[in-house]
Design goal:
It contains 14 helices and no strands. The protein is mostly helical.
Amino acid sequence: MAELELTTAVATFPARETSKVAHDVRDEPRVIRFVIIATAISFLTLFIVLPLVLVFAQAFSRGIGAYLAALTEPEALSAIKLTLSVAAISVTLNLVFGVIAAWAVAKFEFPGKTMLITLIDLPFSVSPVISGLVFVLLFGAQGYFGAWLQARDISILFALPGIALATTFVTFPFVARSLIPLMQEQGTQEEEAALSLGASGLQTFFRVTLPNIKWGLLYGVLLCNARAMGEFGAVSVVSGHIRGETNTMPLLVEILYNEYQFVAAFAIASLLAMLALITLVVKTILESRLQEGQVARDD
């Protein structure tokens, strides 16, 4: 009987302590809570809200006419078109790679699995400038494949392929990293059940796996697209800064600003800012969907 009482007391001790700590946190003095909240709001206002407001204020400082004129300049239209093309290519490649890599890591055990996860995270730890330099060393005139490419009149650097490759390298962790923990949490039971009932591999993926990961997949694609459109460092190295041809929107913003064309520079920057705001809203929606899916699975 004594042992039972002791066991019960030990089991309830952490819960009681946790409840007490949570209660103490909620009962912080009003002054302390006000200072913490005010500090957080002030920080966000100073470093996030105010810069965004200034970007749009500068973009429209000479009126809507000047703003639209800056966006419809041939050079601006070329940069917008190139940015969208590069984002479409890199997101598509990373979508395919991310799903395959996440499926391999989450569903199978194989030699080199840890190395694969490390390589997926590599672009997070490598400077984008260095990432671009890698492609220069590979495809530049003095690079490893440079002579072979020149002999066949194939352009990688200072053209769309080089920009797309650099952007893909920088952004490829986003989709895979969004899916790996989700797939690992879901396990393999549903796929094994589908296979045992006679479903093929593709049928299992499209009817079982894909519906379970759709919100996480969209979340990864969203982050990948936002980073692809805003990438500067790697693209700056491989683009060559050919005006009207290889300048993406971030590169054009820098060029216009250095030339004191502030309205045009901030007009292009406002498009990137609007992309960031849209990304934030959609990201919030997708996170709520993911949380709802998690609650449904726990129930």
